[in-house]
Amino acid sequence: MDIKKQLMNYLPINQQEVEDKKLMLDLLDTQEHLFTRVNRCAHFTASAWVVNQTKDKVLMAYHNLYDSWAWLGGHADGNRNLLEVAMKEVKEESSLREVRPLSEEIFSMEVLTVDGHDKRGHYIPSHLHLNVTYLLEADEKEPLKIKPDENSQVGWFNLDEAIEASNEEWFKERIYTKLNVKLQREFVENKTNQIK
Q: Where is the Nudix hydrolase domain (predicted)?
């Protein structure tokens, strides 16, 4: 599905998503090269909230750049199918072979600020990541491996532990908590209602 159509169809769950959706759509209409790093002010990225089959654990990686446990994901790098990007990044960053989307629709969206930093000997100026998140599922028994140039650990966490593991307060408060609440609403509560 076309990313602009996906964004337009997405129903924000809070004010942050309302504002970020407007900004993403505005930039899509006014900026070029948003799917490559050629646009040094802003570009699209895709992240994944990877849950186990019982949906009570989430996969996190300890990212070297941010010195924190975080979700998995990366840059679009020319691919406008951001679900494909999210799945590819999860496999690359964790060595998981089998990852499946629980929906092909966007699960969450957020505009993220990235401070200027050095990467492989080059300075990358501060910029925005226009990030969409997909909900993926994987088998927690499948072996995991790190991707040494990006992360130093990969592991499964209980939902609350995943939030606590992060060193990034804004992500803990604004993103990971939101993802867990939405996960529980859509899967845990729905399952409970189906049983009744």
A: 41-179
pLDDT tens digit sequence for 31-76 = 999 999 999 999 999 999 999 999 999 999 999 988 999 999 999 9
In the 8-state DSSP scheme, what is residue 14?
A: S
Pair 65, 168: CB distance under 8 Å: no
pTM of the complete model beyond 0.90:
yes
Strand segments (E) across the chain: 42-51, 57-63, 68-70, 72-75, 99-101, 108-114, 117-119, 122-124, 127-138, 151-158
For residues 8 and 106, the answer to whether their CB atoms sit within 8 Å is no
Q: Work out the burial of residue 95: count CB atoms within 10 Å of its CB; fewer than 13 is exposed, 13-18 middle, 19 or more buried.
A: middle
Positions of the chain with pLDDT lower than 70, given as ranges: 1, 188-196
**Residue 140: CB atoms within 10 Å:** 18
What are 153's two structure tokens? Answer: 């650990």
- Residue 183 to residues 22, 56, 57, 134, Cα–Cα distance (Å): 24, 9, 11, 11
